[in-house]
């Protein structure tokens, strides 16, 4: 019995010793792993960084000819664009005589040259870049830019359509919504308009493209109408003859178009007569002509003793009114005076 107990104790001691030895081996292996991942000294790290920078510098020096060549391509593109903007209108004089259309061709050709120059510079800078890859990248980039700058591109294409369809030119007087003025320049994105009062208005092309726009100087002449009136007691036919004769004396009335003088209707205090004639198309010429016509008609009707009436008002009362002169006294006031 005691012999078996001794054997059991011996086995337990052997197992305990084996477990302790295994744990010591694990601890030693863990310490060896920590020693392996211990950071290298500062000098070795600095040497690694210096080696990396040296490799980058060598790569940059090796790539420097490509960088210089790409810059030379961009400079050449810039010079070509400058020459095109300065002398490009000579190329399109035989194609069209309109200045706005010549400017449109020059601007579109400028955009194409810049795109080709940038594409070629990118291919020179990155030798592995092929035209197919470059065009694919440009396509993706254009989609992103199109969503980000949608309003800008809308104004750009509206400006191209305005220049192509030529509804107006530089120097024309236009009216769009509340803006009336002379067009100073039509650019790809904006149009500058000088108001008649002197202010400069920069209008997006999309605004002019979407809204109705009146070109007041599309022709050299413009029809103007005013309304005058004579009293109901005057001879209408005689008044029409007097006004038509007076219109022939006006300097600003064009003689290549017919002057029309017609009774228009019954006004509150007069018979209305409409006078229509043709004059210059600019706002200044229109105002000058209206002023001259009004002055001539007034003088002619006064000379013919034809009345241009003031507004008349007729008052009607339900009950008759007693009219008393200012020097007479009412009966009541007389009695009060006698009693006093």
Explain the overall architecture.
The protein has nine helices and eight strands. It has 340 residues and is an alpha+beta fold. Among the domains are: 62-148; 168-215, SH3 type barrels; 221-303, Alpha-Beta Plaits (2-Layer Sandwich), CATH 3.30.70. The strands form two sheets. It has a five-stranded antiparallel beta sheet. Strands 6-8-7 form a three-stranded antiparallel beta sheet. A hairpin with a 3-residue loop joins strand 2 (179-186) and strand 3. The chain is elongated. This is Small-conductance mechanosensitive channel. It comes from Microbulbifer aggregans. Keywords: Cell inner membrane, Cell membrane, Ion channel, Ion transport, Membrane, Transmembrane, Transmembrane helix, Transport.
Helix content: 55-70%
Q: What is the succession of H and E elements?
A: HHHHHEEEEHEEHEEHH
Radius of gyration: 48 Å
The number of helical runs is: 9
Q: How would you write the strand order of the largest sheet?
A: 4-3-2-1-5
Give a short account of the largest sheet.
5 strands, antiparallel
Name the structural class.
alpha+beta
Strand elements, count = 8
Give the N-to-C terminal Cα separation: 167 Å
- Principal-axis shape: elongated
Low-confidence stretches: 34-38, 332-340
Could you tell me the mean pLDDT?
77
Strand content: 15-25%
Membrane topology: Multi-pass membrane protein
Subunit structure: Homoheptamer.
Subcellular location: Cell inner membrane; Cell membrane
Organism: Microbulbifer aggregans
């Amino acid at each position: 019995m005691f012999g078996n107990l001794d054997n059991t104790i011996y086995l337990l001691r052997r197992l305990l010793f084996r477990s302790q030895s295994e744990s010591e081996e694990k601890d030693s292996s863990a310490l060896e792993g920590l020693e392996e991942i211990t950071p290298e000294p500062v000098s070795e790290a600095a040497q690694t960084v210096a080696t990396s920078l040296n490799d980058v510098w060598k790569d940059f020096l090796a790539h420097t000819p490509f960088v210089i060549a790409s810059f030379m391509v961009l400079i050449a593109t810039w010079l070509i664009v400058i020459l095109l903007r300065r002398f490009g209108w000579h190329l399109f004089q035989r194609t069209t005589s309109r200045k706005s259309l010549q400017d449109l061709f020059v601007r579109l050709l400028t955009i194409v040259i810049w795109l080709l120059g940038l594409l070629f510079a990118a291919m020179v800078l990155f030798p592995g870049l092929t035209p197919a890859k470059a065009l694919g990248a440009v396509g993706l980039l254009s989609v992103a830019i199109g969503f980000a700058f949608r309003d800008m591109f809308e104004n750009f294409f509206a400006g191209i359509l305005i220049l192509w369809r030529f509804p107006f030119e530089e120097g024309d007087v236009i009216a769009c919504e509340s803006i009336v003025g002379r067009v100073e320049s039509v650019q790809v994105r904006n149009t500058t308009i000088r108001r008649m009062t002197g202010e400069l208005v920069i209008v997006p092309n999309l605004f002019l493209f979407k809204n109705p726009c009146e070109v007041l100087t599309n022709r050299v002449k413009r029809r103007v109408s005013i309304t005058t009136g004579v009293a109901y007691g005057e001879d209408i036919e005689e008044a029409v003859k007097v006004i038509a004769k007076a219109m022939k004396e006006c300097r600003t009335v064009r003689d290549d178009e017919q002057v029309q003088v017609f009774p228009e209707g019954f006004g509150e205090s007069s018979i209305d007569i409409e006078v229509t004639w043709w004059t210059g198309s600019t706002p200044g010429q229109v105002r000058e002509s209206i002023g001259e016509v009004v002055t001539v008609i007034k003088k002619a009707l006064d000379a013919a003793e034809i009345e241009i009436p003031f507004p008349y008002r007729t008052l009607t009362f339900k009950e008759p009114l007693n009219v008393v002169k200012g020097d007479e006294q009412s009966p009541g006031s007389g009695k009060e005076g006698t009693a006093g």
